[in-house]
Write a structure and sequence with these properties.
The chain is of the alpha/beta class and 356 residues long. 45% of the residues lie in helices and 17% in strands. It is built from 13 helices and eleven strands. The structure holds 3-phenylpyruvic acid. 3-phenylpyruvic acid binds next to strand 3, helix 1, strand 5 and helix 10.
């Protein structure tokens, strides 16, 4: 199974629910890729797409990615994702109306799909979705009884993954004095930047929003790098936390890092890019292994009654999962992304099919 761009038309998922919301001129898609390991769970992405089919392909690909993400993490959830494809930036009342109608759709699915914040949606948005979609909506604000945003938890999982990678490359897990370049300082990159600085890393960041870059440099004292200079900047660890598809045939030839460990989904433009990185001697930590922390913590605390301490232990467990993936890559003589997908497939194959 592949969940990469281009392969989505051969989507092997279970069910896709499509609805056109005429009021906000928005296509709503809920994709349930696999319930083999549990009920489908995944974030709700709100974005503009070139057309309806592009949005459908994205939700298909992302839901398949969630199946692998949960399987590798050993978490009892299935792969799902929702996309709200808006025609333009919606005004707040229009947006709230859309989110309430989307919540009603989530409620209709009666637990077959649970969701939380994702690209383009926040905890505050989940508060609105939950007005009609409870109890299937997680990651609401603390004021509304949720656990808040997931970015800090995702950052923790990426950080422990960087420690695993440093131990492999340098013999010690410490990030002290390691040069690290974080691409994108949004909901995950920002808390990660602070964690890295506190650990004594020589950290730099890039940010496409120039005003945000200026403010964060001022607030944190961390140096920023021009977005166009990121790939060629020499560093120990390159940390993509902005957009997918950063690693491709051409960009990989320009990288001057020892490892890539980041939170962005779908960093590889094509499956072969994991091999290209290995060939260049760059250690790649598969994105869907290292970025599972937000999903694990939010779903664990809200759906499974975990305490924050338990959530922290589980998110730190991503380090052991990554070690296992990299050990499998070594022993099988395959690239890390293939190893992670193999582990996911093995977990899925071993599971008893669930009766609905
Ligand atoms: C992702 O990790 O890409 C997610 O979709 C995160 C997620 C999963 C389940 C609930 C909320 C967010």
């Amino acid at each position: 199974m592949s969940n990469r761009a281009g392969a989505a038309d051969a989507w092997d998922g279970e069910r896709i629910v499509t609805r056109f919301d005429a009021e906000a001129e928005t296509w709503m898609f809920v994709a349930i890729h696999s319930t083999r390991l549990g009920p489908a769970a995944g974030g709700t992405r709100l974005a503009q797409y070139p057309d309806r089919d592009a949005a459908r392909r994205d939700v298909q690909r992302l839901s398949a990615g969630m199946t692998d993400k949960w399987a590798v993490a050993g978490f009892p959830c299935g792969g799902g994702k929702a996309v709200l494809a808006t025609p333009r930036d919606l005004r707040p009342p229009e947006r709230e109306g859309l989110l309430r109608r989307y919540g009603a759709l989530v409620a209709e699915l009666a637990g077959a799909f649970t969701t939380g914040p994702d690209l383009g949606t926040s905890s505050a948005d989940m508060d609105v979705v939950a007005e009609t979609g409870a109890p299937y909506v997680f990651g609401r604000s603390r004021e509304r009884g949720g656990v808040g945003g997931s970015g800090g938890w995702t950052a923790l999982g990426v950080f422990v993954s960087m420690e695993v990678v440093c131990r492999r490359l340098f013999g010690t897990p410490s990030l002290a004095r390691r040069s690290v370049l974080v691409q994108g300082v949004g909901g995950v990159g920002r808390p990660l930047l602070e964690r890295l600085a506190a650990a004594g890393a020589q950290v730099r960041f890039s940010e496409s929003d120039a005003e945000r870059a200026r403010v964060i440099a001022e607030q944190t004292g961390v140096e920023s790098v021009a977005p166009g200079a990121v790939l060629e900047s020499a560093c120990d660890v390159f940390v993509p936390c902005a957009f997918g598809g950063v690693l491709h045939e051409e960009s990989i030839t320009r990288l001057r890092c020892r490892a890539v460990v980041g939170a962005a989904n779908n960093q590889l433009a094509a499956a072969e890019d994991s091999i290209r990185l290995a060939t260049r001697g760059i250690l790649y930590a598969p994105d869907f292994v290292v970025n599972a922390g937000g999903a694990i913590a939010v779903t664990g605390m809200e759906a499974m009654g975990w305490t924050p301490d338990r959530a922290e232990r589980e998110v730190r467990g991503i380090g052991a999962t990554l070690e296992r993936v990299l050990a499998l890559a070594d022993s099988a003589g395959i690239d890390p992304d293939s190893a992670a997908r193999r582990l996911a497939r093995e977990r899925l194959a071993a599971a008893e099919p669930r009766l609905a």
